[in-house]
Description:
The complex is a heterodimer of chains A (331) and B (174). Helices cover 34% and strands 25% of the residues of chain A. Chain A is an alpha+beta fold and 331 residues long. Chain B is mainly α and 174 residues long. The two termini of chain B are 34 Å apart.
Amino acid sequence: MKDEQIRAQIHQAVDAHAEHLRTDPFLAQRIMNQERTGEPVVKKRLSVGLVLAIVLMLVAVTALAAGIIYNLGWYYTNRDNYLRDNNPTVYEAIMSNVIENPEQEQSSNNLVDVTIQDVSWSPEVKKLTISFRASVKDPDHFEMHGMWALDTDGAYIGEGGSTTVTDDSEDRAMHWLWRSFETEDYEGPCYYGPPFEMMDDGSKRLLLIERNGITLFDGTIPMDVSGSMDMFRTPKGDIVFVEEIDLEWLSEDYDQRMAEYANQNPDMKEYAESRVTNAQAIREKLKDGMIPVRLTYSVVEYTEGMDDLELYTGGEQGYVDFVIRPKQTKP
Amino acid sequence: MIAEQGPSCNAEETFSRLVAEYQKPLLHMCAMMLRDDAAAEDAVQETFVKAWRALPQFRGECSEKTWLMRIAMNTCRDMTRTAWFRHTDRRITLEELPLPAPVETSREDDREELAQAILKLPRKYRDVLLLYYYQDMNQEEVAQALNTSPSTVSKRLKHARDKLRTLLERGREL
């Protein structure tokens, strides 16, 4: 088939696939207005980089002086202020339900200390939000990064993979570590490269932490716990995870929607019904006024040339058990 | 070309024209690249914010379209590299599961099948395919937008077409 025919097919396919998207007729005007009312981008002949460096340094110094805690309150006003600016109902519900230092217990671990910093159970907006911090026990000898910071551009192929490294510049057979998932006061490099070259101190041993999963009620009621996550590294080298879990099954509307879905899709009826049964069981359990939660994680030491299976499945497995008491979250 | 009109004399008019001309194709392309409608809208807005800021420095070393696409590609790439984007759950929900497919396929089905096949392509192939075929750019322009060589673009295009053919069901011709 000729290029022109392929082009026509792809045009039609992409346009049809995205036709529901709406353009903003005022976009140009809005951007120009915002840029005018905001800080001028290049007002003086000072180096923008220098100005940025000064600002970042001031922020870092202020952060250190203030002993900033990178918890939910910090997160939603600094790192991700989308909810605050665009969905204040959800933002305010999360903030008003925050419980700091919930009662918790962690498994023994030789490498890291982990803490559930704060948690917000917000049934009115169907959200559970958790911030979790991990610190190395021996910072003189270890430096920790998130497992998510390893090979984020997807170009890692690895040894013995299903495909081989080609002459394409994006292919590579070695792991790379990213240094961009930091707080905004991070002053180091924001790019990627061989892990030990990207560390603050490459002479230390490198630990990678992965947050594995969350279960409610000791896993006795199988229910999807899904949502969105973020991870960043603080200036002190702690790793913080913030997790937003959707609790759509909290309301009885969910049962109705599942029932409708089952009616339209008879072959999915059994599955839909089991979801409703589980949702109802969880709602019943909530009446006890206590939600036990377990968060699991793993920490692995990265070494040059280590086996990928060991990297992704090995290391120390750990967990934190904590309790949310929703009744206490209500004023 | 923007340079011919002179960004300093009528930047607002030029910018408004760019937005009017490219907003929709950019939105569609970003949706395919990011596989997320909301992220695509953010990417388009971010692209135009960057374009507005960079407009005074644009000297016409490449076409305005290539320039804009390069900004868009970098913006999308940056977005996919954020932890939040990568770990946002994009699993399809039960309610979104497609209904059983009808026995007879329509032209709309073929289009969606092709769109889904494009979405499944590895990013580097998807990028060149969308720029070359959807944005109607030539290989030289695609190379400029992706900051790579025309020969790499040519190789990736070939691989992209091959992979698409493999992905398309029923062996229909592409």
